[in-house]
Every structure is written in structure tokens, then in C-alpha cells.
Amino acid sequence: xxxxxxxxxxxxxxxxxxxxxxxxxxxxxxxxxxxxxxxxxxxxxxxxxxxxxxxxxxxxxxxxxxxxxxxxxxxxxxxxxxxxxxxxxxxxxxxxxxxxxxxxxxxxxxxxxxxxxxxxxxxxxxxxxxxxxxxxxxxxxxxxxxxxxxxxxxxxxxxxxxxxxxxxxxxxxxxxxxxxxxxxxxxxxxxxxxxxxxxxxxxxxxxxxxxxxxxxxxxxxxxxxxxxxxxxxxxxxxxxxxxxxxxxxxxxxxxxxxxxxxxxxxxxxxxxxxxxxxxxxxxxxxxxxxxxxxxxxxxxxxxxxx
Length: 306
Description:
Blueprint: H1 12-42, H2 49-78, H3 85-117, H4 125-141, E1 152-156, E2 161-165, H5 171-212, H6 218-251, H7 261-285, H8 287-305
Antiparallel strand pairs: 1-2
């Protein structure tokens, strides 16, 4: 992105509004995603392979609210890059971990739903551990290429944070761009679309057979509901990340458009809202999560009374 080091002086009321919004987003993300982790960890009814991956997704949401957002808030209040280059690199690297971890987590959820629904595979908890291990290896190692000289981390004034950057004209820079586009976007997105397309085609055919023979399978209906919930989570991710991604990777660097600060900030808020919305989706779509939330909150409240 251009003008990465421009100094601006933001009005105090704007700083206050942005700080308050990000603080609320951080608190909501930590509370909501921590509840998801507690519910899945403590209640047997929610301990499925899909939900273990949901728990891992919630860990990324908790990291986002607990660590990443506060780093943004400090820069917003300071109205500049508050950290040194090491802090800048950590901020950008953490953002890479959370984004790559999130999209690859969604990819593996789609793969699991495909294996369970279409292939009728009986997956066990150890399979979830394998998938989670792959996710963490992917999201921690792939952003690290910037530390090896394949790009760098820069502070972007309008972002109020640090992001990866690389030379868009050199061979190495072009290779880095292709690498990121394929590995971070194309591969997971195409895999997700492929899996859900085949799942919904399969479920539609199965539903027609059930209607034809006047037969209702509770197991099949539950599989359909879980799959639809995970698909909604994926669509929510796309909607929340779309505007920010277009601004950061196309509109600003390629089209050279000067984006109003309010527009950019709104796109950033949408990104962070993704990690707030998910816990509500789980509770709305799944009665076990609703019951688990209630029990967890009751326990916390009782502990707080003593």
C-alpha cells in the first residue's frame, strides 16, 4: 500500500469513537469465543469432530480480541505507529496467523462435512487433532516467509497497524504475490466451494428419495443442519472480509484510489465482527450450544457471587 508512513492528526472525537468501537468488539469477541471453547470442552453432547474444529476457530477469535485488537487500539490512541519494528512485525505476523488460520480452519470444516455427509466416514477425535495440527502448522509457518526476506512488514497509516508488503514489480515480489493468492485464497476457497457444492447436491438427492418413500431420518436431518450452519459461518466470513480485502489488495494498491478513512475503518470493523457473529450463530442454530451457554454463564455467575 502507498503512503505507509504518512503522519496525520486525527481529531480526538474520532480517536475516541474508534477506540470505543474496537474495545467493544474485543470484549465481545473474547467473551463469545471463550464461551464456545468452554461449552465444547466441558459438554459431551458438543464434542464432535466438526465442533473441535469450531473450538479451534473460536481460539483464533479469542486471540483476535485478546491480543490483536488491543494492539490496534494502542496505535489508534497514539495516532501513530506506537511500536518499534519488532512490535510491527509481531502485529502483522499475528494478523497473518489469525487470517490464514481462520480460512484454512473453514476449509477443513468443509472437508470434514464432505467426508461425513457424502462419504459417510466415521471420523474420530484424533482426526480433528490431525486437522488442527495441520491448520496451526500452516498458519504459523506460511506468514513467516516475510522473516526470511520474502517481503517485509510495514505500518499503514489508514490501517493503524502493520501488514505484510512486498515489491510488486520484482521477480521475488511477483512470486510472493502469486504464492499468497494461491495458498491463502484460491486453494481454501475453491476447496470449500467444491465440498459444499457436492454436499448440497448429495443432500438434495437424498431429500428427494426420503420424500418419495415418505421417510424421515433424524440423523440425515441433523447432518444437513450442521452442514448448513457451517456453510452460513463460511458465508459470514466472506461477507465480513470482502470489503477489507478489496480495499487492501486491489482498490488502494492497484487502482491507486484514495479511500476515505471512515470507509476503511468500517471495513476493518466488519472483519472483527466476523469473530463476534460466529458464537451467536452456533447458539442460534444448535440447541446444545444454547444449553451449554446457559450452563456456563450460570456457573460463572455462581462463582462470582462467592
